Queue: 4 jobs
Job 1
Amino acid sequence: MLTPQYDYLSSLDRTEYYSSLENKTNKPGHPSFYQNRHLHRLFHNNFLSPTEDFDIIGFHIKKHDYNLILEELNIWERYFRRQHSTERKASREALKTITIDDCAGRIMEFL
């Protein structure tokens, strides 16, 4: 069932993915991170890999590589745990207005 998808994905051009690795744009925080993770998924054939077993037609049975999927989910978890840049900017601006006489109160109010 997954053979046509695997064949299509494995036939795609990989140069754009290799370029993203060379330019280090495949890291969280980079503006094109999402697009490059998509390239990463395509590079790994949507985490499909052939097994040693054959189906009734004679093709290798394909299955998902759960270790690669887990790695990808861990990357996205770290990505979404990060505080958004607008929140960081607002926090910096709020902390700039703090005066020394009420520093503890302002920090508690902010938290």
Job 2
Amino acid sequence: MTAKEALAFAVAEHKKWLADNSTGTRLDLTWADLTWADLTGADLTGADLSGADLSRADLKGANLTGAYLSRAYLKGADLTWADLTGADLSRAIGLPKEKP
């Protein structure tokens, strides 16, 4: 299984978890290398992306509500229209600077 296939499988499993939250588990992508990953519109609600390398990843319109992005590397990631409500961004690296 390629890395891209593994990611597609993990996201599909996470969607099942979101539909039936009886398992008590969440998508665990801690320290995953998701450099240049196409996650456009992905539903990653509550996913654990702690320490993940998301540099240059396309997260346009992704739902990252309540996701754990602590220590994630986000340099160059496209977060346009991404929902980061309640996401843990503590010690995240490479976040775009907010405009004053």
Job 3
Amino acid sequence: MKKQNTNSSRDNFGMVAVICGILLFAAGIILRNTIPGTIADNRLLEGFGILLAGWGIVPLFRSISARRDPAGARRTMLTENDERALELRHRAGYIAFLFSFIASTLVLIVYSALTRGQSGFDPMWYTLIFLSVAPMIVYAIATVWYNRK
């Protein structure tokens, strides 16, 4: 019974996240086109909409496939929890982390070179610094925390 409730809540999360994401994205586009001179940046709504919809797509697709083939969904769940599959996902995640770290650092370097003569406060430069440094700090803290655990 508990697994059924957990799957149901996961199914509901996927559906709600996708619907809310689409609504936020559409609201951002509608506001941008109907009220173009607003103080608020409507791209934030669109960005959160994309994030939320993307976050809900995987649980939604999994619930749809589980309804169509319950035995296949059970096999997939057992395979995903296999130690080898977990190790492969951890390695892939680490490679993705390294790629994003290197890419954001390269973008920071190129942006710094292109805006070398610019004076004044540049929020984009500080944002790129944060995107380059923060993942490494989080990685180091998480590594120490998991090693102590």
Job 4
Amino acid sequence: MSEKTIIAPEKPGELAGTLDQMVALMRGMADMIRATNERMAALETSVRQLEKVTPGQASEICRSIRNRAEEICDSYRMPGLEKPVATAIRRTVRAATGSRSTQGIARCDFAPVMEIIRDWDEYRTVKRIKERGSAD
């Protein structure tokens, strides 16, 4: 049977010095862990931006753009101008995501893009499209 031995420092000053060293080491470890967590968060963000929408999601985005263009044309009474309105919506999506195509949109941006499409209603743009369309 082994006995538990407690090693007590000979002087109280030694204990304080040892504790100070341990505190300094713990602070250093905490700083390293914090830096590692920040790097991991940055890496996760980068990876999330690299994952693109699925083909099904890209199709849904395109379908939503066409449907919203039809809704806008119905509400502003501009039949036959769905294509230029859809182009304007796509331009807004491109500006918001930085992606040149629907397939290039980051997967994490799918929900915000769908919200942009659902809420899109730029009066000045629609007015300009309507003026150009009626002049033809």
